[in-house]
Amino acid sequence: MKTAIRLSTAATAVLLALVGASPPAQAADSPYERGPDPTSAILDASRGPFATAQVSVSSLVSGFGGGVIYYPTSTSEGTFGAIAISPGYTAAWSSISWLGPRIASHGFVVIGIETNSRLDQPDSRGRQLLAALDYLVEGSSVRSRVDAGRLAVAGHSMGGGGSLEASRDRPSLQAAIPIAPWNSTKTWSGIRVPTLIIGGENDSVAPVSSHAVPFYSTIPASSEKAYLELNGASHFFPQSVNTPTGRQMVAWLKRFVDDDTRYEQFLCPGPSGSAVEEYRNTCPSA
């Protein structure tokens, strides 16, 4: 059957050439590609190509403390991948809320959560991230926009540690992005989810030498992983708009949630310049 299809395609191409017609446009490599061909300018901009809207989530929902959903308003692109993001220890979602519209405007549904308690530890934050994804898919007002098979998690500090917990506990996730992550567990050999870890060189709360670096090092290379360390950055770098963070998060989500290989150019060899102290990765293969 496959041979017959190849012959038919070749015959069609010859026929088109003989009659002077143009061949049909090439289909996208991934059915989940969303938006124009990427450029550094698009990724570095404060907003991507999609218009977005947002809706609040009540604190009375089950499993997490409510939050805000950001989503593309377009109805012509089909469903979108989704990501749940947790703030850090003692912090509210507002501390990193710039990530919501930034990521959503590139074609994702984002739920930024409030935690049940601001003192919740990483294991609890991991469970809450998964509860937020379940709510997004099953009970939210935007559930018809979400592809339940293309989900991801992220978080800052203990929220970042929570994203490691969530990805270990739910290997069907498509991506995880711990940012300045803190967790008392140092070994993550059980993670199978493609993971981008972003750390700060001068982080004194979760020093990269005892948190981000060992987390990265113990994740199997077969899972796909990358480590971005920002030059001179403190633990609180995600609490202000940060172009390397935004750019790499979007590129990672595009590549692994949308399976969009157009974004590999931003992952391998990866970012460089004065803002980057170090970058390591496993260079994803198409």
TrEMBL record:
Write the signal peptide boundaries.
Answer: 1-27
Please state every residue range assigned to the domain named PET hydrolase/cutinase-like.
Answer: 26-284
Mention one GO molecular function.
carboxylic ester hydrolase activity
Residue ranges annotated as coiled coil are: none
Q: Which UniProt keywords are listed?
A: Hydrolase, Signal
Task: Tell me the Pfam families matching this sequence.
Answer: PETase
Looking at the keywords, is Signal present?
yes
Q: Which family does it belong to?
A: Belongs to the AB hydrolase superfamily.
Protein known as: Pimeloyl-ACP methyl ester carboxylesterase
Instruction: Supply the source organism for this entry.
Output: Plantactinospora soyae
